[in-house]
Amino acid sequence: MTQAAQLWQKLITRAIARESSTEENLQLLPGVEGQDWSRFAESIKAEIPAELKAFYQVYGGQRDEIGVTPLVRNLTLLSLDSILEQWQFLNEEVDQDEIEVDNGPGIKPTLWSPAWIPLATNGAGDYLCLDTDPDIEGTYGQVLYYWHDWENRSVEAESWFAFIELCLTEEE
Question: pTM of the entire structure?
Answer without folding.
Answer: 0.89
